[in-house]
Amino acid sequence: ENMVLSKHYRLSFSITFLLCFHLANSQIIEVPILSPILTPLVPNILNFLDQRLELVFSIIQSFKNTITSDPLGITSTWVGSDICIYKGFYCDNPPDNLSATTVSSVDFNGFNLASPSLDNFIGQLPDLALFHANSNNFSESL
């Protein structure tokens, strides 16, 4: 009787082991291997079309931070490295380097922007040929 019980126990154990082994293998095979989500260790670095645009980026962003009123949401377009699509900014090739791209004109006409000053803005844009700013509220000095 002990021998029969022992054989029954071994058979039961073997079947249980095989079922567990099969179940584990089938789940491992059927479970898709998820690729790890790669998050950049370095924040997105802006890539500029030209170094002249990279130069004026911080000037524009600093000026944007001085805007106290923007009822039309113009400055919401002043994001990213493609400065040439910012509302009010126009790019062209400068006369001294026709293969370069730079901000050649700024037209804020009718934008109703308000800022206490245009200091450190217009004079900092090295290739600016035209500045148009009717119907805005810029105070103090240019």
From TrEMBL:
Protein localization: Secreted
Keyword Signal among UniProt keywords: yes
Keyword Secreted attributed: yes
Keywords on record: Leucine-rich repeat, Repeat, Secreted, Signal
Top-level taxonomic group: Eukaryota
Gene Ontology cellular component terms for the protein in this record: extracellular region
Secretion signal, residue range per the UniProt entry: 1-26
InterPro entries attached to this UniProt entry: LRR_dom_sf, LRR_extensin-like_regulator
Name of the featured protein: Uncharacterized protein
Organism of origin: Pisum sativum (Garden pea)
